[in-house]
Write a structure and sequence with these properties.
Length: 340
């Protein structure tokens, strides 16, 4: 993993809780401003401890438009229970506009602190393009201001783990440019695997045919999913039953984990705490993982609108995902360059 040596206290063991002990090494004291968005599914205490600015997405429910404030003013169980009770209702989400990004970036420019924005992948949202558009306008108006916009190329708590480590690395004396380049490489070492309770939300959003969702439900088929190098969702496999899907996630963890217990793991769900508890219990039985910090939080309504209640995800630092490219992808990268 592209990570220099550091003298940072090891993190303490973490029981299921939204307020993990991240240690003094995670406090942001560097001269680099780090901005993120709410889709990284931060536990609110984690976002406050890191000192990052969180730009909220918005979403639309039967009650109207709401702001994703990391569940500070709403209850995740009530939100997802509402989706269970009314599966016919289609929840929608709204991308962050260039104007909103410009407002945030210009405020940073006026303060003059070099800034990095780490946003939701273009594989799932168009917002990152709006961020790049706004950044260009800010650079034209403030030509001496350092502003970097990075596509996380991952989603949910994978973005959280990446931001956590970027904050810690920022205290090693990196310039904003160096930190941005570090993060652009490090994002490929964050793995995320998840399973869904049903295909209903994907079908409602037009991501799979309704007939396929119906068949999957009747056969008790549960998918294991991940994301590719561009951040788009990928299907890892289909399992007969929930427990087999969870065990498939554990197997991917065994095969790809970096075995660096100074780095936290994350388990997030859409109101599926029983399965999240089971997954944490099994993880702590893995070699060297009994005392590793595990961050627990609920998936934001932004991503939750598209996957529905009952999703469970496991996120961790692991092997370089670029090394697992298929033959055709390797050919494409040779033609388009390593940043493709």
């Amino acid at each position: 993993m592209p990570r220099p040596d550091r003298d940072t206290p090891k993190t303490a063991a973490q029981q299921p809780s939204p307020s993990p002990s991240l240690g003094e090494g995670y406090r942001q004291k560097s001269p680099v401003r780090i901005i993120v968005d709410s889709t990284a599914d931060y536990a609110p205490e984690v976002a406050r401890r890191l000192g990052v600015e969180v730009i909220p997405f918005t979403y639309i429910t039967p009650e109207g438009e709401k702001v994703d404030d990391l569940w500070e003013t709403s209850d995740p169980h009530e939100f997802y229970e509402g989706m269970r009770r009314h599966p016919e209702v289609h929840y929608t989400t709204c991308a962050i506009t260039p104007g909103r990004y410009f407002e945030v970036f210009e405020r940073a420019a006026r303060e003059g602190t070099p800034t990095i924005y780490m946003g939701l992948t273009a594989g799932l949202s168009s917002s990152i393009y709006s961020a790049e558009q706004a950044a260009e306008m800010v650079r034209e108006k403030y030509p001496d201001f350092e502003l970097y916009v990075m596509d996380n190329r991952c989603d949910s708590a994978a973005g959280e783990l990446l931001a956590i480590e970027v904050v810690r690395q920022s205290q090693n004396g990196f310039t904003a440019k160096e930190l941005f380049e570090w993060a652009c490489d490090a994002r490929y070492f964050v793995h995320g695997y998840f399973t869904l309770d049903s295909f209903d939300a994907l079908a409602a959003g037009g991501r799979i045919p309704p007939a396929a969702a119906n068949v999957g439900g009747k056969l008790d088929i549960k998918p294991e999913l991940s994301y590719d190098l561009n951040g788009a969702l990928t299907l890892r496999g289909m399992c007969r039953g929930r427990k087999k899907a969870l065990r498939a996630m554990l197997q991917d963890f065994r095969e790809n984990y970096a075995h660096d217990t100074t780095l936290p793991l994350a388990i997030v769900s859409t109101d599926a705490e029983k399965d999240a508890d089971w997954l944490e219990k099994e993880l702590r039985r893995e070699k060297g993982c009994a005392g590793v910090t595990i961050i627990r939080s609920q998936v934001s309504p932004i991503l939750g609108c598209h996957v529905g209640p009952g999703m469970v995800a496991l996120v961790f630092w692991g092997t370089d995902r670029r090394e697992r490219l298929s033959l055709t992808d390797k050919i494409a990268r040779r033609l388009r360059g390593p940043s493709a």
